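Please, structure for the following, as tokens.
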Amino acid sequence: MFQNIQIEGDLPTINDLDYKRIQQSYLMVILLNFFVVFTLCIGGLSVALFRSDTPFIMEFKWNFLQIALLFFFFLLMARIIGFSKRKYAIRERDISYKEGVFWTSITTVPFCRIQHVELNEAPVSRLFKLATLNIYTAGDSASDLKIKGLKKEEALRIKEFITSHINGE
């Protein structure tokens, strides 16, 4: 006979985990990438604004530039604050990743659902000896969990740990 008995509300929560922060040097990677994009965007906007002959643009070009700079400042602050919210935890049977400033998301992937694990190094991250751990589950070609900013050695240890669990060792 099928039963579905109610469970009491005193269950442990995922927030009770002891999350580890990603490497502090990953903030430099975020900032370098941000400033490359920032320089290209502001440079392109400046050229477009200052070469324009349109009276409206000529009159308000400094205002447009100030608004763009203010927008990029808020994006920069969001990146810096968001960096401090990136954390991960590994348990016996799963891995969890927590991120987000305004909208917090916690992703937990049980080892029994993992198909394979990949380690990637972006060019800027490689300068800081950092790597990204991509965890794939069945049914999709995109990674289900991506943890950026891990020390390469630690990412390799985590990958080996997960791989040994999914291979039944």
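The longest strand covers residues 130-137. Residues 45 and 115 are 45 Å apart (CA to CA).
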